From TrEMBL:
Gene3D superfamilies in the cross-refs: 3.30.70.270, EAL domain, PAS domain
Residue ranges of every copy of the EAL domain listed in the record: 300-549
Segments forming domain PAS: 1-52
Name of the protein this chain belongs to: Diguanylate cyclase
Location of the GGDEF domain: 159-291
Length: 549
């Protein structure tokens, strides 16, 4: 007997070290607790006995959880599960629980023994891992994985919802000019500002990609339109970071379930198509998806494949539009690419150049087109009868290619063309980042004897601060201002001030897109130096100039 009692005490000691033990009657009242239960709950046995487990209820589990538990054990069956409880001091702990009914001779439970083990540390680790799985590390917002799960839940429930894909315009320039750390800080501030749009618990804001956020919401169409307007409204004021203001713009694509797709993949793909359409419409705008966008997307995919083939096979030709001085003499040409494809016919540069930009083909395409220009230049000069200059449009991506200068020089040497006869046209976009680098590249062009022109001036957001530092030769007035200069007071004012500014800075100025005599006369009267447009001459192949001279 003594040995049996000793064995029982040993078992009890072992249980107190490893196991949380409680016994309850059929009403759930606690009739026994061991030391381990008291330690983890921070209640004494006197405080626990006579009470139900509601004394440690954390309100984490809903009523159905405990109803299922009681339905199981009241039938004499064992129940197992994980329960989150609350200790006396309010702290939370988790237990892995097994409840075993003790049955009388009729097979009915007369008490329940609960055997539990502390799994709090394990649950904390699980929560940390789950957080890493569903949370964006930079902004702290939900990530694409979390968003996908939430969208699929709504689809399974056949719940109507709308999805906004919010894509930042030109975020690459932030990374390039500020570095990834500071760019990520700005992303976090953007996420915080967008979070103000969340109107209810069913709305979810997630960061789905590098420069892209998504807003999932179950609202009416009217409220949805208000949310879109609010996105643009809250970013009318800049993001302030390290004593500098940054103006943020977005392109937004909008889709509706079930109208625009029956899966997360379809909805996101269609929302992206709407974003790309918005970007094509001039940025800082939004587009609601429609099926015609997929047709456009299929054409873009086809263009991508045909473009790659055309670059490999050198299927492009260059046309040349004359530029005239004040005396009406041809002083130079602008080179403009043309592409005729056997399958699609003539394809506008306005269509295939953006595709080349997005796919990365713009750099090999740019070098191919420059090669065609230096090949044509001797023949063009021969056709005109004098050593004429040709302007070549340099894309933004090609401008920042580290091999730019060496490759252009190699092509000039290969075709024995003097760089003095080349004019390089750059866009206002070069002023958005890496200003010292931009200045150094322009200087290298100038050192080679090439002229440098700032193209499409006024169509972007050029900084006058940088403009005075750029060692360029010429400014070209964008044709959008020339088009309505006689009817739009703002366009006229911009043209007048640009001509004055250019001359004050020592630059010459060219107006492009001239189509009427009235436009030409006005620009001549205001002191414009050179003129280009369909009124004076359309872009033509070299062979045309042989025939006309």
């Amino acid at each position: 007997m003594h040995s049996e009692l000793k064995e029982l005490y040993s078992i009890q000691a072992a249980l107190n070290e490893t196991t949380i033990l409680a016994i309850t009657d059929t009403a759930g009242r606690i009739v026994f607790t061991n030391d381990k239960f008291c330690n983890i709950s921070q209640y004494t046995s006197e405080e626990l006995i006579g009470h139900t487990h509601k004394i440690i209820n954390s309100n984490y589990h809903d009523s159905s959880f405990f109803r299922d538990m009681w339905n199981t054990i009241s039938k004499g069956k064992k129940w197992t599960g994980e329960i989150r409880n609350r200790a006396k001091d309010g702290s939370i702990y988790w237990v892995d629980t097994a409840i075993i009914p003790f049955l009388d001779h009729d097979g009915s439970p007369y008490q329940y023994v609960s055997i539990r083990h502390d799994i709090t540390d394990r649950k904390k680790l699980e929560q940390q891992l789950h957080k890493q799985l569903i949370e964006d590390k930079i902004t702290g917002l939900p990530n694409a994985f979390y968003l996908e799960n939430e969208v699929e839940k709504k689809i399974l429930a056949n719940e109507e919802f709308r999805l906004l894909l919010i894509n930042m315009d030109d975020f690459k320039s932030f990374n390039e000019s500020l570095g990834s750390h500071h760019a990520n800080q700005i992303l976090t501030l953007i996420g915080e500002r967008l979070s103000s749009l969340i109107q209810c618990e069913k709305s979810i804001l997630a960061r789905t990609y590098n420069d892209e956020f998504a807003l999932l919401c179950s609202v009416s169409d009217t409220n949805f339109q208000l949310i879109i307007k609010e996105v643009f409204h809250i970013f009318e004021n800049p993001i302030s970071y390290l004593y500098t203001d940054y103006y943020i713009t977005f392109c937004i694509g909008a889709v509706h379930y079930p109208t625009h797709g029956n899966s997360y993949e379809d909805l996101m793909q269609n929302a992206d198509s709407a974003v790309q359409t918005a970007k094509g419409n001039g940025k800082n705008t939004y587009t609601l998806f429609d099926e015609s966008m997929n047709n456009n997307k299929n054409r873009v995919l086809l263009l991508k494949n045909l473009l790659h083939e055309a670059i490999q096979q050198k299927k492009f030709v260059m046309h040349y539009q004359p530029q005239y001085n004040f005396q009406g003499e041809i002083i130079s040409f602008e080179s403009l690419v043309r592409w005729n494809n056997p399958l699609l016919g003539d394809i506008s540069p306005a269509e295939f150049i953006p595709v080349a930009e997005r796919t990365g083909f713009i750099i090999p395409l740019g070098y191919l087109l420059f090669e065609l220009v230096v090949q044509d230049l001797p023949n063009l000069q021969k056709a005109i009868g004098k050593d004429i200059k040709v302007a070549f449009n340099l894309s933004l991506k090609q401008f920042f290619d580290t091999k730019l200068i060496s490759k252009l020089m190699h092509l000039c040497e290969l075709y024995q063309v003097d760089p003095h006869y080349i004019k390089i046209e750059i866009t206002e976009g070069v002023s958005s980042s890496k200003i010292p680098y931009v200045i150094s590249i322009i200087k290298q062009f100038r050192d080679l004897g090439m002229e440098v022109e700032l193209d499409d001036y006024g169509s972007g957001f050029s900084s006058l601060k940088h403009l005075k530092d750029f060692p360029i030769n010429c400014i070209k007035i964008d044709q959008s201002f020339v088009k309505d200069l006689l009817t739009n007071a703002s366009s006229k004012a911009i043209i007048n001030s640009t001509i004055h500014l250019a001359h004050e800075l020592g630059f010459t100025i060219i107006a492009e897109g001239i189509e009427t005599e009235e436009q030409l006369h006005y620009l001549r009267d205001k002191g414009c130096d050179a003129f280009q447009g369909y009124l004076l001459g359309k872009p033509q192949p070299v062979s045309y100039y042989y025939q006309s001279n």
